[in-house]
Amino acid sequence: MLKPKKGRLLISEPSMEDSNFFRSVILLAVHNKNESVGFVLNQPTKVKVHHLIEDFPKSSFPIYIGGPVERNSLHYVHTLGEKIEGSQEILDGLYWGGDFQLVKKMVENNEVDSSNIRFFAGYSGWDEAQLLKEIRENTWITVPADKESCMKLSSNKELWSSFIKKMDAKYAIWTNLPADPFLN
Question: How far apart are CA 1 and CA 10, in angstroms?
Fold first, then answer.
């Protein structure tokens, strides 16, 4: 099993009781001895960025729920690299944050689309050894990430299932488990 690190994905076990992370796929943007920070890639909302940010250009960019921490904060993950000053590289070709005024200008000028930027309300966060403990308890499985998979627009179940199917065959049964096994 891979250890967590910046640029890897966390795949939740299928019966996670915490609804914030039910069948979720999380991109780790930070992982060090003090903290871990990530964004849930498969919890889109019907809310658009311009509905939340008053001076954001009208656009079709949906907001994703990044996690339960600071849901009033806006984050973005993108493939625009050096085009957005202040961006932090998460993995090869995938970045977090940067100059928000420049992002707004790029949206206004139609220089970006949903294939190269995603917006998140809040984030997922863990203190010190909390994430490692949860991984030892089999709450999460750590897998490699690539920018294409992270930027793919997909629903909760589709993205989660697609990663499970790529994993070891012993996890294949997970995709067939009901949301609530006690109703089976």
Answer: 12
Query: Quick one: pLDDT at residue 164?
Result: 74
The CATH number of the domain where 68 resides is what? 3.40.1740.10
Residue whose C-alpha is closest to residue 126's, from 14, 33, 44: 33
Length of the chain: 184
In a domain, 171, yes or no: yes
Phi then psi for residue 117, to 5 deg, are -155, 140
With respect to residue 118, please indicate whether it lies within any of the assigned structural domains: yes
Tokens found for residue 178: 């009901």
Distance CA 73, CA 123 (A): 8
Total count of domains within the chain? 1
The pLDDT tens digits of the residues spanning 89-98 come to: 999 999 999 9
Instruction: Kindly state whether residue 4 falls inside one of the protein's structural domains.
Output: no
Residue 162: band (very low, low, confident or very high) from pLDDT cuts 50, 70, 90? confident
Give the chain's end-to-end CA distance (angstroms, integer).
Answer: 30
Between 8 and 163, whose confidence is greater?
Answer: 8
